[in-house]
């Protein structure tokens, strides 16, 4: 499978600093996006730390050490999913510790959505309200559950999705990295097929741009860099009240290419 | 005074006002609103006033009481709500009452928040409770997200029942599909079901599935009891506690 990806981050139209961080680790096919919080520039400390710790953990930690899982993960999870989960737990602990040691960092925290592809299995780990979406045969599907108060209310049937969108409590998170020494990490696995498009984004996108607009943009702009730019442009046009960060990943079938190169080789021999 | 109108296939069957005494609903003829249907329990549910609010209470009925599609044990009723018992529904007309505000406790729970914040466990519990008090002191059945199951009624697939616990469930011939279609010329990814905050959504893949006989357009939200048909496979979508 061929993978083309691009990420972009923008401060938006209202804020003065960008607390989002993201990283694309091409060698590992690892994609991390984090939205920091906690004023006075410490939000970006937390989000940068989340990205750094997860990248380092996934790149260096040996397979076996993943066996020492901190809690009983379902046995059917792949080792890569366990590692990614541990990486997120590690990031949480380090942000928490740093905030405990440095009084000026008190209250800092971050969301994180990290995805890791091996062969065709995509592991998704996340905490907070940054989302992962999958565009497949024209349908945009959210792969993560927001850990926000309003999303929880919708899940419990207390309010409708429309009421959630209008609520002034949208910024209230139920889980984030750095708030407690331990955090519950949501992990999921999805099998990727060619022509899938994956989007990771901070809430600065999803609050400004509707899902049909996102789906339309991802379908119209087949180059990830162009799609990322367009999405950020849309968020800013619609108000840009928060930092906006997106990572667009496109999975392409490379069998076509092989087929054609084989034909070319075949014809070359004949000549 | 509020009134309840029992409807069947959009025709009015009976109308009763709600006074100080509870209005009872059930199959037995001595109910205030008798519903002649085998899916309805003898004493199915009742509606009454409590502290100025109109409340519906399920009386441990076999097939449940639904308010606007949501199965409830107890719920506060608002003007225009529909209570479903079996195939009958009861319209709630509370226009004469003082409006019951929807957002009690919610708007006052916290000032407008621009900065993202995290709730610690105690505050979180309180806020969720307040939020729960907003509509009612309802205990929605099980009080949590219900998990759906696909029950296979016919066709060649790799199982009889599939519990939809994943965010994304693929129906197709591909080895990664949860519901794996068998046989020649079946598409790899025929359709998919996405679990979202407010329910399950069926989307097209290489084929267009039908729901209750009608082909879907884009994605549709699935309801309890829906019949899904794709590539000769028929499945029943149901919620289990």
Descriptors:
heterodimer, A: about 270 residues, alpha+beta, five-stranded antiparallel sheet, about 25% strand, B: about 240 residues, mainly beta, six-stranded antiparallel sheet, 23 strands
Question: How would you describe this protein?
Answer:
The complex is a heterodimer of chains A (271) and B (241). Chain A is an alpha+beta fold and 271 residues long. Chain A has helices at 42-60, 79-101, 149-155, 161-166, 203-206, 211-220, 224-237, 255-270; strands at residues 2-10, 20-25, 30-37, 109-118, 121-127, 131-136, 139-142, 172-173, 186-191, 197-201, 244-252. Chain A has a 5-stranded antiparallel beta sheet with strand order 1-11-10-6-7. In chain A, strands 2-3-4-5-9 form a 5-stranded antiparallel beta sheet, with helices on one face. In chain A, a hairpin with a 4-residue loop joins β2 and β3 (30-37). Chain B is mostly beta strands and 241 residues long. Chain B is built from 1 helix and 23 strands. In chain B, the strands form 4 sheets. Chain B has a 6-stranded antiparallel beta sheet with strand order 2-1-11-10-7-8, with no helix packed on it. A 6-stranded antiparallel beta sheet of chain B has the order 14-13-23-22-19-20, with no helix packed on it. In chain B, strands 4-3-5-6-9 form a 5-stranded mixed beta sheet, with no helix packed on it.
Write the layout of secondary structure elements.
The complex is a heterodimer of chains A (271) and B (241).
Chain A (H helix, E strand, L loop, with lengths): L1 E9 L9 E6 L4 E8 L4 H19 L18 H23 L7 E10 L2 E7 L3 E6 L2 E4 L6 H7 L5 H6 L5 E2 L12 E6 L5 E5 L1 H4 L4 H10 L3 H14 L6 E9 L2 H16 L1
Antiparallel strand pairs in A: 1-11, 2-3, 3-4, 4-5, 5-9, 6-7, 6-10, 10-11
Helix pairs in contact in A: 1-2, 6-7
Chain B lengths: L2 E6 L2 E7 L5 E4 L6 E2 L10 E6 L2 E6 L6 E3 L2 E3 L1 E4 L4 E4 L2 E6 L23 E2 L2 H15 L11 E8 L6 E3 L4 E5 L6 E2 L10 E6 L2 E6 L5 E2 L2 E2 L3 E3 L4 E5 L2 E8 L1
Parallel strand pairs in B: 3-4, 15-16
Antiparallel strand pairs in B: 1-2, 1-11, 3-5, 5-6, 6-9, 7-8, 7-10, 10-11, 13-14, 13-23, 15-17, 17-18, 18-21, 19-20, 19-22, 22-23
